[in-house]
Design goal:
Elements: H1 2-24, E1 30-40, E2 47-52, E3 61-64, E4 69-74, E5 81-90, E6 95-102, E7 105-116, E8 120-128, E9 137-145
């Protein structure tokens, strides 16, 4: 019986450790600052429009920690937005899911990534046929790792 309890306890420890390791390797970890907006062609992936962000838009940040916590700051609205909570990153779906508690209310949100590298994260902000070719183009905000 003692041997069985030891095996069960050890298994839980190993599974928990593996879960933490995968979070520690997440490509979203770190501080990300908004740097530009782009519209990417749905037909061929060519950048149709690119604008460098300035002013309050350039101050928007995400910060992701290996313990699963996140912080989001956006200064363009009045009052400014400051959200904290926990997150999970789905590498297969390229989605970041947010669990936010504000004023005692729980909220669930998500962002879909167009692409992510070690230095750049592109978050999809919309879809429309910008170039009128009959194919939906993708609007993204680009965040650069600080």
């Amino acid at each position: 019986m003692k041997k069985c309890k030891f095996i069960i306890g050890f298994s839980v420890l190993v599974l928990t450790s593996c879960q933490n390791d995968s979070q520690a390797d997440s490509p979203v970890l770190g501080t990300w600052k908004a740097t530009k907006n782009m519209i990417i062609s749905g037909s061929n992936g060519v950048i149709l429009l690119q604008n460098t962000l300035t002013g309050c838009e350039a101050s928007t940040t995400y910060q992701f920690w290996s313990n699963g916590d996140f912080e989001y700051r956006q200064y363009c609205s009045s009052p400014s937005v400051h959200e904290t909570g926990t997150f999970s990153y789905g590498a297969n779906s390229n989605t970041i899911t947010f669990y936010i508690t504000t004023d005692g209310n729980n909220q669930l949100g998500s962002e879909t990534l167009y692409a992510i590298t070690n230095t750049e994260m592109q978050i999809i902000t919309g879809k429309s046929d910008y170039d009128m070719d009959g194919v939906q183009d993708t609007s993204v905000t680009v965040y650069t790792k600080q």
